[in-house]
Every structure is written in structure tokens, then in C-alpha cells.
Amino acid sequence: MSEIAQLIIGDKTYELPVIEGSEGEKAIDISKLRDQTGYVTLDIGYKNTGATQSAITFLDGELGILKYRGYPIEQLAAKSSFIEVAYLLIYGELPTEEQIKKFNYDLSHHTLVHEDMKKFFDGFPSKSHPMGQLSSLVSSLSAFYPESLKPNQTAEELNLSIIKVLAKMPTIVSWIYKKSLGHPYIYPQNKYDYVTNFLNMTFGQRTEVVEIDPVVVNAMNTLLILHADHEQNCSTSTVRIVGSSASNIYASVSAGISALWGPLHGGANQEVIEMLQKIQEDGGDTDKWIAKAKDKNDPFRLMGFGHRVYKNFDPRAKIIKKACDDILEKLGIDDEVLEIAKKLEEVALKDPYFIERKLYPNVDFYSGIIYRALGFPTDMFTVLFALGRLPGWIAQWKEMKVHKEPIGRPRQIYTGATNRDYVDIQDR
Ligand code: SDX
User: Fold this and answer.
1) Rounded distance between C-alpha atoms, residue 268 and residue 246, angstroms
2) 110 classed as catalytic
């Protein structure tokens, strides 16, 4: 017998169904609440509200668990590759050798962007933020692939638009970086795998093939895997709701990029490094900055700390922290900001303010230190987050379409002026 929730309003008792997910999560289904009671619910920031039922990613914030399609993130980060994880998220199963070969073949034949897109790259001021460029450039792909605008694409058409956006993103990201340097673009080369191709387009030189260090390739794969999906976070929810209006995949992903840009979300990885550098320039006094983070009158927050869902360690932060030490050692880099980050973490995790609020390092706290060690400038960090999150956005967008979910349209409680008549300006 499935559980029932009872809601008592005045002298009436309403019964609401309870649904349970495969991992034991429970929800009260209020999809008929307004019809039954005339009431809606209010949950600003959706802290208690489920927007969908999804089979893609499970996370348990209390226990610090994260799984993609049932596979623990720790195993995927240690054993898989980013493009294999992308396949798992989008198609639901780990690929066979034949399937991953076909996937890589399809991707490698869609890595080019139309030459006319160079006009868009050239239109941006050279120091404009890469996230603003990325959002615009991804949306502009719809101009070159009008077939993607069809609201009811066949499964094959939908899959082709998925392949195209996934294949072209590394080219767009690397060309944004090259343009910022005033360097020539490097074209994708089919002989490389997805991540090596991206690194070659980013750090290679037109004339010589730069040997991409396997340590760097492995580190990039790990970071991209850890960012690949995270259930209904702000940017993924944005991709789903934009897609729910039957908007095309490029516009939906572009909207997700814009949401990720915010410093409270994906933009935090850039903010963390800028924060650590500011503390370093200020003499490295971590106690002073922890006190500022706790001071309600001080707008300063400990960036990279805290999470809407994780009230324990973000499992991704644990993996990235360990990877930091490994990668910096292998690359022979001694970065003082890593020591400052570790000191901040050590002090914060013993401080009642952070303990009471269950504030732990999140995915953004250490990731920027690795990106920096790999040679990326700070303003490219959130673009790298978007590159990693793309398969998750795609998988969630596809799930929403396959389930034929209705257009997202939340309700509200109106608190403005009640009815009044228009007054001519001379009488106001
Ligand atoms: C990501 O949702 C996802 O899954 C996101 C993500 C993903 O993979 O998609 O995991 C990626 O966005 C990670 C988060 C990156 N953002 C930051 O690191 C920015 C710094 N952290 C925050 O601003 C904050 O912790 C949030 C935005 C992450 C979560 O905010 P909530 O859940 O709305 O919590 P809140 O702001 O209401 O904070 C609760 C309390 C408040 O204190 P009180 O009012 O109760 O006294 O904790 C305090 C906050 O002031 N607090 C912090 C803090 N984060 C929360 N105080 C100091 N420093 C911080 N970082």
C-alpha cells in the first residue's frame, strides 16, 4: 500500500499521493493540488520542490553521494573517460567498444564550425568575458543548422543535433581562448580523441604539433567527468525549462551557459582563485578572511564553500583536492594559493559558523587551482565548467523531450496593488 499525505485546510482533509524514487527519496505529488484545494505552494528558490522525475543523476547531500546512471562518481573519475561518461549520461548505459567507436566517429565528423562564425568571434571585444561569448556563439549555431529548429524532431534528427553541439563546443571554447591571445585558430584534427583535440586546439601552435602531456589529458578528463552532471542545479533547470517551450538545443544550452555564469553557481570557480589571490596579496591571513566570511555586515563570502544540497563534503571536491596534489607534483608546480586554500579549509571546518551551517568545500573550491596549473587563465574557468557540464545538460534536455514534459510555468502569490482606476497625468 503506497503512502498517502494528508493536508488539512480548515475543516477539510485532502489526500495527496506520495511517490518514492529508486533510491528511496520521497515526494508529495501536488500536481492536482490547485484543482483539489484552490491553493498553490510557495517555495522561493525551489529548496523543497522537485521539478521532475529523472533517471540520470542521483545525489545524496547528507551522505555526500553522487552517481551518474547508478555508477559512483569515484569509479567513473578513476576508470572512465569524459566522452564515455558523456555517452553514459546521454544514452543511459556504458557503451560497448562498437558503440563508443561509432560515437567518436560521429563526433569527429562534426567538430568544425561554419567559417562564417569567425565573423561572430571577431565581433567581440578581445577582452570580453568568455562566458558571454560562449553563450552567444552556441546560440548562433541554430543559424547554421535550421533543421534543429523543428520542435518535433525525429529520434535521428534529435541525435544529430546532440552530436553537433557536443562536437562543436571544444572548437568554440578553444577559439575563444585563441582569440583572447590574438593567436590564429587551430582546427580540430580527427586523429585526436575528444579531450586531446580540445587541448591541442587550445595550447597547440599552428606550425608545430605540441605534444600534449598525458598528465594534462588525464587531469582534464577527470575534471570534465566531475562536472558532467549534477541533477537539477540552476543551469540544468534552466536548460530544461527553456527546452520545455520546444526551443532548440542550441538556445537551451546557451541559456544554461548564461545561468552557469553567475558567481553563486559555476562562476564561483573563477571567484575562488580571485579570492585566494586577494588573500595571498593581503599577506595570507586566513583568520582575517574567515572572520569576514562570518560577518553578516561584510558582503564577503568564502567562495567555493557551501552548497544547496551537499550538507557534507561534496564528493567531487574530495577527488579534486587529491588530484591537485598529484597534478601539481607531476607538473613540478608549487602554487602558494593551494596552501592558502588548504589552510582556509582546515580553519573553516573547525569553526562553529561553518559547522552549524554545514558549509563544506564544493566542486569549485579546488578546481581552479588545477585549471591554473594546466595553463588556463582565470576567466576561462567557468567556460571549462560549461564544457564539462554539456553532456549533462544534453542528457537532461533529451529526457525532458522524450518524456514530453509540459512547458514549465510556475505559479506565484501576487502581493502588489489591488484594483485601482487610471489617473490622467495632470491629476497625479
Ligand atoms: C555550484 O546546485 C548545484 O548542484 C550547483 C553545483 C553544480 O554542480 O551544478 O554544485 C555547482 O554552483 C557549487 C556552488 C558554487 N557557489 C559558491 O561556492 C558560492 C559560495 N556559496 C554560496 O553562496 C552558497 O553556499 C550557495 C549559493 C552555494 C548555496 O546557497 P543557499 O543554499 O541558498 O544557502 P544560503 O545562501 O541561504 O546560506 C545558508 C547560510 C547563510 O547564513 P545565515 O543567513 O543562515 O546566517 O550559510 C551562509 C549564508 O550566509 N553561507 C555562507 C556561505 N554559503 C552559505 N557564509 C559564508 N560563506 C559561504 N560561502
Assistant:
1) 30
2) no
